[in-house]
Write a structure and sequence with these properties.
Elements lengths: L4 H22 L6 H8 L6 H4 L3 H20 L4 H8 L2 H5 L6 H9 L4 H18 L8 H27 L5 H18 L10
Helix pairs in contact: 1-2, 1-4, 4-8, 5-10, 9-10
Organism: Paraburkholderia caledonica
Protein name: TetR/AcrR family transcriptional repressor of nem operon
Pfam family, one: TetR_N
Length: about 200
């Protein structure tokens, strides 16, 4: 039975969504094409009808996962973003959490296409986190962008370090709290650094 173009597109989107979650949870090398397709509800043979290579899927799934983080961050004030991002809830949500924190180290060793998706995702997140970046003179814009980039790199690094610790390790929580407090304190003297998300 031949499927419609709409159904083929829906199937492709399901594979990309599934891959995005599995890659974040297990890493790029921890997921084989057969396992991925089975998790999406398809046969292994259908993969190459939809994608040229696993690398193509990795790039598309990175864009998908980063777009989810950007969408969740849109409209959030920077302190609100930091409180959630550096929470235990986000740290423990590997499959649905930030793609940059889950796969940034892996992405550095991947194709240009995968790395380009990460770079575009970083730019998109900076745009969401630094809406004032478009206002004011060039110096103000550059400073606002630098602050947002510092905040994002600090937050991503904190999640990576916390996840590297055993789940029940007090150090995992200490990393999150210390980095959250430092980032919030750097944003505004009126921010209460110790507030929980």
């Amino acid at each position: 039975m031949k499927i419609t173009k709409a159904q083929a597109q829906a199937n492709r989107e399901r594979v990309v969504e599934t891959a995005s979650k599995l890659f974040r949870e297990r890493g790029y090398d921890g997921v084989g094409v057969a396992d991925l397709m089975a998790a999406a509800g398809f046969t292994h043979g259908g993969f190459y009808k939809q994608f040229g290579s696993k690398s193509d899927l990795m790039a598309e799934s990175a864009a998908c996962g980063i777009a989810q983080t950007v969408a969740l961050s849109a409209g959030a004030e920077a302190p609100e973003f930091v409180r959630y991002y550096l929470s235990r809830e986000h740290r423990d949500a590997r499959a649905t959490g930030c793609t940059m924190a889950a796969l940034g180290g892996d992405a550095a060793r991947q194709s240009d296409a995968v790395r380009a998706e990460f770079a575009a995702g970083i730019e998109n997140l900076l745009t969401v986190l630094c809406p004032e970046g478009g206002a004011g003179d060039g110096a103000d814009t550059g400073q606002a962008r630098a602050r947002s980039l510092d905040m994002l790199a600090h937050a991503v690094g904190a999640i990576v370090m916390s996840r590297a610790c055993p789940d029940d390790s007090p150090l995992a929580d200490e990393i999150l709290a210390a980095c959250r407090d430092q980032i919030l304190a750097s944003m505004s003297p009126s921010t209460t650094a110790g507030e929980e998300p």
